[in-house]
Amino acid sequence: MPSPLAQNERHTAVLRDAFDRIDLLTRLGIRLTPVFLSYVLVSPRARIERPKRLDTSHVLKADMFSVEDELNKRGLLKGIGHITRFVAPATLRAIGRQLVALHTPATVNYAARFGITTAQGPRTVSRGSEVR
Q1: Nearest to 5 by CA among 55, 67, 51
Q2: Which residue has the higher pLDDT, 75 or 33?
């Protein structure tokens, strides 16, 4: 993958869009939305090269990542704000079902993709016989 950081940002953008399209909880009239933190975790044995002109602070070895540490870095006030976002398991399932309902399977027209324009039937090969 040319840039796991860029790929992760694209994944996060898709998630933000999906959460914008579903019904979420409200508290005191304010719509609660999830906070997305973007990290790329690599093998503890990997070597991470950190170029000076690129922010790679969110590329971490998997054994060095701790959710608790990341929440502590955000500070006490933000932590208290996150406590109000905890929801019941049934609500999480309902949100998950809404996200799943947004999925549409990819459809690929392979004939057009590979420039096949004739209406030939499928070709099969059997043992000991010619191609039909």
Answers
A1: 55
A2: 33
Is 60 within a domain?
yes
Residue 130 in any domain: the answer is no
Total residue count of the chain as it appears in this document: 132
Overall number of domains in the chain: 1
90 in a domain, yes or no? yes
Q: CA-to-CA distance for 36 and 99, rounded, in angstroms?
A: 16
Q: How confident is the model at residue 77 (pLDDT cuts 50, 70, 90)?
A: very low
In a domain, 118, yes or no: no
Q: What's the token pair of residue 111?
A: 């004939």
The 3-state secondary structure of the chain, one letter per residue: CCCHHHHHHHHHHHHHHHHHCCCCCEECCEECCCCCCCCEEECCCCCCCCCCCCCCCCEEEHHHCCHHHHHHHCCHHHHHHHHCCCCCHHHHHHHHHHHHHHCCCCCCCHHHHCCCCCCCCCCCCCCCCCCC
State if pTM tops 0.85. Answer: no
